[in-house]
């Protein structure tokens, strides 16, 4: 067993009964993305419940243990052994740390018991500069056609046209495609994003070049996705990206912020984006269709509808959508995630980690906030501090 004491890396062996652990295959969130818990070593940084990087001061192999699938009300889940710890909020103003087996019994008799803390907006370590502004990319993923040499975007709001124009990189321009009205006198909302005359003579239009760099160029609506560099960008850039997505393909339905797409990968990426910002999200699917001129019903692609709650207020930039959000603001609830079931899942090879945060929380798969091994943490504390500590797993 290894840990840090007095700034030095030390090795020791923990007690066999200290089994707070997850399977080696379980993803754990780090400042640069997801890593399997089985790959972590003492000194690695993971993300704590406060969204900030925190050092894993110890890791310990626990061997083969019985594990349980812990499922949440948003359809996500993770796996942990029976002695693994969870900090839950059974009441509005209190919290309690209990093990998986105790949690299973309590959730079975009280469906409102297993309320988990929601991670604060995650502070990643960005890999570098983004080739396109995050808000502009959000608009393009929402309403952009990315398959041609130039980019086509459908915008019904002059406000968004000006937002695109302001966000374009040097050497790019936006222009209306053809006449502003069709032959029946209806307004046309198609715009093209091209290079300036000088840029066309010297190379690929800047926005097209950036999309190629990101691997997005040539992807149709059903294949769109968020590049990893944007999913792991700064908090402000991720908020801007989400605003662009919502200003195009988002809205308010009742008291929920929603986003709809026919791309399963984009739906999954937006879900990750929302969770990384400290929100909660539910994904539902809907099979859509229409009746053609011959009276035949044509089945369309499956639509993915995301309903989300965010911790930072109005997520829109488009004025008319901001106003609609504000009209509902008093009825909007803060993000929350709740454990709904804990079920046996056989045996697995597991290990535990200890993080340096006083609350002992770290972020496991699906942005689920869980607890480290308190018994391991006690071993790294000075004897006097250890005597004053009480193992949370004793709280029932």
TrEMBL record:
PROSITE patterns, sorted: INTEIN_ENDONUCLEASE
Pfam families: LAGLIDADG_3
Stretches assigned to the DOD-type homing endonuclease domain: 136-279
InterPro entries for the chain: Hint_dom_sf, Homing_endonucl, INTEIN, Intein_endonuc_central, LAGLIDADG_dom
GO MF term list: endonuclease activity
One Gene Ontology biological process: intein-mediated protein splicing
Official protein name in the record: DOD-type homing endonuclease domain-containing protein
Entry superkingdom: Bacteria
SUPFAM superfamilies linked: Hedgehog/intein (Hint) domain (SSF51294), Homing endonucleases (SSF55608)
Coiled-coil regions listed: none
Organism lineage: Bacteria, Bacillati, Actinomycetota, Actinomycetes, Streptosporangiales
């Amino acid at each position: 067993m290894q840990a840090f004491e007095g700034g030095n890396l030390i090795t020791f062996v923990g007690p066999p009964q200290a089994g707070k652990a997850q399977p080696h295959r379980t993803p754990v969130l780090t400042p640069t993305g997801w890593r399997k818990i089985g790959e972590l070593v003492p000194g690695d940084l993971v993300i704590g419940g406060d969204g900030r990087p925190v050092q894993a001061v110890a890791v310990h192999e626990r061997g083969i243990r019985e594990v349980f699938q812990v499922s949440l009300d948003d359809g996500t889940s993770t796996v942990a052994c029976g002695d693994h710890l969870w900090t839950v909020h059974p009441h509005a103003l209190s919290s309690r740390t209990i093990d998986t087996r105790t949690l299973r019994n309590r959730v079975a008799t009280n469906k409102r018991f297993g309320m988990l803390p929601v991670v604060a907006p995650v502070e990643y370590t960005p890999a570098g500069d983004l080739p396109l502004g995050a808000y502009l990319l959000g608009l393009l993923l929402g309403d952009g056609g990315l398959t041609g040499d130039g980019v086509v975007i459908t915008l019904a709001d002059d406000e968004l046209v000006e937002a695109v124009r302001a966000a374009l990189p040097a050497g790019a321009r936006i222009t209306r495609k053809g006449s502003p009205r069709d032959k029946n006198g209806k307004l046309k909302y198609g715009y093209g994003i091209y290079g300036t005359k000088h840029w066309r003579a010297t190379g690929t239009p800047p926005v097209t070049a950036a999309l190629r760099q990101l691997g997005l160029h040539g992807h149709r609506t059903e294949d769109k996705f968020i590049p990893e560099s944007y999913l792991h960008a700064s908090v402000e850039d991720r908020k801007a990206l989400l605003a662009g997505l919502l200003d195009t393909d988002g809205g308010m339905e009742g008291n929920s912020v929603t986003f709809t797409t026919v791309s399963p990968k984009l739906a999954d990426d937006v879900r990750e984006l929302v969770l990384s910002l400290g929100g909660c999200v539910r994904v539902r699917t809907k099979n859509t269709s229409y009746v053609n001129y011959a009276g035949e019903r044509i089945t369309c692609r499956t639509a993915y509808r995301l309903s989300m709650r965010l911790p930072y207020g109005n997520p829109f930039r488009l004025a008319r959508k901001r106003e609609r959000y504000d009209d509902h603001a008093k009825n909007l609830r803060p993000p929350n995630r709740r454990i709904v079931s804990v079920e046996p899942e056989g045996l697995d090879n597991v290990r535990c980690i200890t993080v340096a945060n006083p609350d002992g929380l770290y972020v496991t798969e699906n942005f689920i906030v869980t607890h480290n091994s308190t018994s391991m943490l006690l071993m790294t504390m000075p004897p006097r501090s250890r005597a004053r500590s009480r193992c949370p797993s004793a709280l029932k």
